Amino acid sequence: MAYGLVSAVPVTALALFVREHFGPLLRLDEAAIRAATDVTRERPWLRTFLLDWQEATQPKWVYIAGTIVCLVVWRRHHLTTRAAWAFVTMMVAWNLQLVLKEVVQRARPVVADPVSTAPGYSFPSGHVANAAAATSILALLVWPLLERRGRVAVVTAAVVVTGVTALDRVYLGVHFPSDAVAGVLFGMGLAAASYAGYRGWNPLGPEDPPPPEEKAADPASRPTRTVPRRGTP
Fold this sequence. Notes:
Its main location: membrane. By secondary structure, this protein is mainly alpha-helical.
């Protein structure tokens, strides 16, 4: 509940500011869009990279990859309820951000010389919301299977993918900065709230294996060595 409120409050506040056309926020958003698209327009290589990233982070590709990870964790590591939680939460995130778009109904940025265009409403950014949700959920999914370095790697990957996706939407001029911020808060908040609920409700009991470093440190898991007595061949 607490995790859900932490993310829901700022997202709701941003949505209200957008719906009520709060002047300072709108002016900041529009100034940022003009500056960002100017940067992209002057650098063809950046525009190419951003368009490729936009395609690679389409929600359908993100969730196909996420589903494959869930299947691997389920089949190879037998974490059935954990994999099911991750898959269901990703599908909820995908659909819930679409509902939020319909509620707010914010128009896309209008740029005189557009770098790129996109259909539908603007708030929150679907690319960002889905990237934040999927990477957070998948990091939580594989967390108990990883050692310290692996955990650092998945957290770093989640931050980089979400951050680059947020910048991509603004520098292509298809979302305002507040749309991207709302997407990050929505995705990460939903993942954290859902995981807290999953950990609180698990009728089968703890399913997580001990972390790899704990298994290695467990004396019971170490092989025993028999020392022969003197005179024994």
